[in-house]
Specification:
It is a single chain. The protein is mostly helical. It has one domain. It contains nine helices and two strands. Helix 6 runs antiparallel to helix 7. It is elongated, with a radius of gyration of 26 Å. The two termini are 40 Å apart.
Amino acid sequence: MGRALLNTFPLWLLAIGFVVVPGAIAVLGARIARRLFPGLARNEFRETGTIVLPATLAVYGIVLAFVIVNQYNDYASTRDQVQSEALNMEDVYRAAHGFSQPTRGELIATVDDYARTVVLREWNDLAHGHDNPRAAGDLDRMYALMWSYHPTQPATVALYQSALGFLHDAHVGRHHRVDAAIDTLPSVLVWFLVLGAIATVLASYLLGFSRRHHYVVPTSLACLLGFTLLLSMELDFPFSGTSKLPARHFTEGTFAPLFHNGQAKPLGPAPGTP
């Protein structure tokens, strides 16, 4: 559901929904609570609230902080892996120029195709939680070309070994990128975050409602927790939504000539396709 929301609505609209809507629900809930439990208006449960609310905030806050910190670390790691993947693929491209024909031309063409496939197709597929088979096929073809190449000169052998290392690192980077797009928080943890936020707001009702500050605490908590849940959702889907990780590392540097004004040339048939 979170991925669908990010892919359907702009971030500013989601921010309004995740802040304003919970705040409005908290106010409505407070009004209903005052009618159903008149003792809340007379502050009869304030002492209980001063015990329950801090305890609830402590438990929920610890878990929420743990989730956010781990999600941000994964987000930052994914961003670095994307850059590393692109740089390693550029190194494969450069190393291929030292190979003899026909391997040189075929490998360069396949690397080019891979970069264009990642930008034009796979990035959009990642937003929906899956990879693109053509990109995987390009990697397989690169490996096949490398295995069929048998250099004999010492300099070429060293270059060949370096190219294999670059290709392996790029392959690992792609797996990390795809896993980051597919993997999500466990459902039980998602339910804990949502229900924990609701429980925290409900616990704030026990503080009572004075005449001047009837709804300040529950409304503030609802807005803050709603925004925090939106932050968690953004970090959980790094390739979805309007603020997703960009594919610019594959459109700069060595691969820049493949693109014009940010748009890649149209993709033709996959290499090896008749």
